[in-house]
Specification:
The structure holds two protein chains of two kinds.
Chain A lengths: L9 E5 L3 H14 L4 E5 L2 H11 L3 E5 L7 H11 L4 E6 L18 E4 L4 H22 L1
Parallel strand pairs in A: 1-2, 1-3, 3-4, 4-5
Chain B lengths: L3 E3 L8 H11 L4 H28 L2 H18 L3 H15 L5 H24 L1
Classes of the chains: A alpha/beta, B mainly alpha.
């Protein structure tokens, strides 16, 4: 993990499946080499890291032990409503509110298996919004 | 692209197609992909064992949990029959109706043997 500078975008990645976490982290660092990346294996740890590092973007799985991605997203929204949140889920249909993601206020909802082109597009839109906000507040 | 729900599901791809796409996404880093496959190969038997234990003991809650957990890593490399069988086992656990679970597990083990062969072939190539 790089030391974060003011213009660096920080991402918090929350995923309970170790190989999926490993894959996402590897891909994100390759695709977006300038990011500061933090990762957690469940929503509870994710929320702790969010409070500690205040990342600009959160990418999270939904169904996780201890605290779900949805529960974490609700708490993050209370701390900073402007945080960009991307949810990833297999979406089996019986564990998600309808419309998926909207009830807990996420910005993007992407089904698994992940279409990386969609994830990259969502991230690029998030980066643009985050950098604009940083520029406006400078 | 507007903000919102990206509910676009891609059609299921074969494991070979998935590996090819992942290699492109990883910018041709074959070693990184081989490392991920190695992690999966090192862990999949443990996942199957958990599912098998749940089926053998008739523990629906454990079946749901273990199948769900396996689906997370399996779905990275497989979107076809093995994933559908794991999904079916997970739903059996959710509904607490394990009739047909031993047969689904047996089919899953057969499908996994095929998938593991494809993954090992990629690493050895």
């Amino acid at each position: 993990m790089e030391t974060r500078t003011d213009d660096m975008v920080a991402i918090l990645l929350v995923e309970d499946e170790e190989i999926a976490l490993q894959l996402l982290a590897t891909i994100l660092v390759k695709k977006f080499p300038g990011i500061a990346l933090h990762f957690a294996g469940n929503g509870r740890v994710g929320l702790e890291l969010y409070r500690e590092h205040a990342p600009d973007i959160v990418i999270t799985d939904i169904n996780m032990p201890e605290m779900s991605g949805a529960q974490m997203a609700v708490q993050i929204r209370k701390i900073n409503p402007r945080t960009k949140i991307i949810t990833l889920s297999a979406g089996t249909g019986n564990s998600l509110p309808e419309p998926a993601g909207a009830a807990f206020g996420t910005d993007y909802y992407i089904f698994k298996p992940i279409n990386f082109a969609l994830l990259f597009t969502a991230l690029e839109e998030c980066f643009a919004a985050v950098l604009q906000a940083k520029s406006d507040s400078a | 692209m507007a903000h919102g729900n990206y509910d676009k599901r891609t059609p299921p791809r074969s494991p070979a197609e998935i590996l090819s796409d992942l290699l492109v996404t990883l910018e041709g880093d074959r070693q990184a992909l081989s490392d991920l496959i190695g992690s999966f190969l090192a862990s999949y038997q443990g996942h199957l064992q958990h599912i098998s234990t749940a089926v053998c003991t008739g523990n629906a809650q454990y079946l749901e949990k273990s199948a769900h957990h396996f689906k997370g890593s399996l779905g990275i490399f497989c979107q076809t029959e093995a994933l559908a069988l794991t999904q079916r086992l997970m739903e059996m656990g959710e509904r607490n109706t394990l009739a047909g679970a031993p047969e689904a597990l047996e089919l899953l083990e057969q499908e996994m043997a095929v998938l593991v062969g494809t993954l090992r072939e990629f690493i050895d190539r």
